[in-house]
Structure formats: C-alpha cells, structure tokens
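debug: dumping io for the single-chain case to check the tokenizer round-trip. Nothing else runs in this session.
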Amino acid sequence: MNSQLYNKLKLTFIYLLITALAGAFLRFMFIYDPGVFNYQYLLHSHSHTAILGWVYNAFFLAILKSFLPEKINSKKYNYIFWLTQIAVIGMTISFAVQGYAAVSISFSTLHIIMSYIFIYCFVKDSRRKYKSSELISLKFIYGGLFFLFLSSFGPWGLAIIVANGLAETDLYKQAIYFYLHFQYNGWFIFSLIGVWVVSFEKFLNENEVKSLKSAFYLLFAANIPAYFLSLLGFKVGVVIWLMALISAFVQLFGAVIMFIVLYPLQKRVFNDGSGWPAKLFKFSFFLLLVKFVLQLLSALPGAGEPAFVSREVIIAFIHLVMLGVVTPGLFGWLGFNSLIELNNKLTVRGIKIYLGGFVLSEVLLFYPSLVLWFRTPAIPYYSYLLFISTLALLAGVIMLNSCVRSPDITRSIDLSK
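debug: decoded output
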C-alpha cells in the first residue's frame, strides 16, 4: 500500500476516533453536563463525522480499491477526496460550534456536490472498464450510489422547509428521516454488500449469480417504499402502512436469498474461515439479517410502537446499522484485502472490546422496549452503564487505530481480467 492510500485510510480512521470520542462525551453529558458544549450542536457534529467522515470515506476507498484500483491515487480522485475532506472537517467543527447555520450548511452543500462528482466519475470510469461485464457486485455498488444521490434530496428539502418557516413541523423530521433512510438502508447497505460480493464473485456459479440478481432487485425495489417505515411514528393512512409492511417483507425475503447464496461459500473465500476477516463478515451479515427482521417487526401493529416512542430504541436501531453492520463489515473487508492488520494482539483486543461495548450498548438501548411491552422494571444506574458501554467502544476504536499500516502484501482485486 503506497503512502497516499495509507494517509487517506489513516485519516478515515481518525474520523472514526473523533466520532467515538464525541459519542462518549455525549453519554457523559447525561451524567454531568460541564456546560462546555451545546448538546444538540455536538450531536450534529458527531453524526455528520460518523456518516460523512468515517463511513463515506471508507466506502469511497473500498469501492475504488475493488473496481478501479489503478485510479485510486489518480489526480482526479485525489482532488475529489481531499476537497471532500475540507467539507468533513468544516462540518465537524462548525456543527459543534453553531449547529445548523450558514457555515455548517455551506460545508454540507460542498460535501453533497463532491459526492455528485464522485458518483458521476465512478460510474463513467467503471462502465468504460467493465463494458460487457455482468458483475453482480457492481449492481450493488450502482444501487448504493443511486441511494447516496437520492438521500441528498433530504438536505435540499430541509433548506426549503426552513425557508418557509416549517422547521417545527413533522415535515422537517420527515425530511431528516428521508436522508437517514437512504443513507443507512441504501448507500451503506448496498455498498457493503457490493464490496464484499467482489470477493465471492469468482466462486459463484450461474444459478447463484441469478439468485443474487433476484436478491438485488428485491432489496433495491423495496428500499424506496421502505422509507414509509420511518413514517409509522406519524399519523399515516392504511395505504402507507401497507406499503411499509410489504416493503419490509420483500426486503427480508431478498436478504434471505442473499444469505442462502453467500454463507455456504465462506470457507472457500476465507480458506478455513477462522480468521478475523471471516468472523467480522459473519458478525456483520448476521446483524444485517437481524436489521431486516426488526424492520418487519416495527411495521406490525402494536409490536413496533416502542420503535417510535422511545428515543433509546431509535438510537439502538441506528447504532445497529452503523456500529454493528457497517463498521465491523468494513473492518473485516479492509483486513481481508490487507489494508489493515487484524492479527496482532492489540488489534484483536481492540476488536473484542469494541464488539463487547457494542453488544452491551445495544442491550441497554433496546431495553426500554421491554419496559413498554412487558412493564419490566427500569435498570438502575442506566446512564452510567450506557456511558461505560461507550467507553468500551472508544477504547476499542483507539486500539484499532493502530491497525492501519502498510502491509507486506496487498491484495488488489481486478475483475476486468
């Protein structure tokens, strides 16, 4: 791995560290607020750094490494990457200082524009390279990029809503949910599947390719009406509810097809399947299936009520995708492709602490749903336990920041041959 790619990857992990630090401090503020930061401002900075600093950059590099490795350090993609970093750093600072205001919105706008340029350049270059290709992995990547583009209509809509004095209405929240849905359930999920399927591609037979194509079309088509799942906490009609329910069923069906194809191939892809890339792949994709199950449960009358009345449960679902599906999935993919080191003692310890903190935080965050469903007693010292779980996540991330190094052997995947 050359120094340019190393620097980009190292910066991406620094964003993850900043995200973890901010997350721990936000939890600390539930125990004691030192009055240093505005909670909402810091929350906006935390979420934007996580989504646009850590995840966006990681997928930017993973997608190029998988499909256009010869262009990952080209002038064009270097300009796109580093201009994007101006936007990310600007958002991290300005959101923490002023929340949604002129400066932070300007940096957000710059990031959206740079994402459009990346989408255009990647699609153009990849179509030129894979002219007659029927790569199923590339279908998922194109799907992810489509949802990345679609998600940007949420921020544009927010500007119109605020300009018309509707910032306190349900429409404002629905625009935010639009952005989050097509980021988390579109761009994140489809890109993660896409970069992993690259590793499975050469092991697939004709029937398995057809099955994965069916899974893609089911997941892709259902993800658009699945946005209505985010609206079930509002007063919606029967038609909206039915569309949400059907989309949840269809997505779960598509996910099951994908799992039936990919899981039997693990040992061939990972050799013995005992290393950390294999473990993290299985952890990530198992929780991806859990995500689709929970989506379906949230659409069922009565059963999904806690998902919309409990702030902790909403955060639990967001963290399930971000911290349980996407982040471990990216760790595993980066390790499998020799971009990070996953086998030294410090890194392994960091992974275990990170995953332990994640599991503890999810149990605690989902617990209020049991209180609502079964009238179970509240947990004593709840805020303290949540803070401890975020400290574990932070400790794991600190240790994992040491895993970014220039390896002796770098695996380059070039599917055009």
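debug: round-trip ok. Residues 157 and 175 are 6 Å apart (CA to CA).
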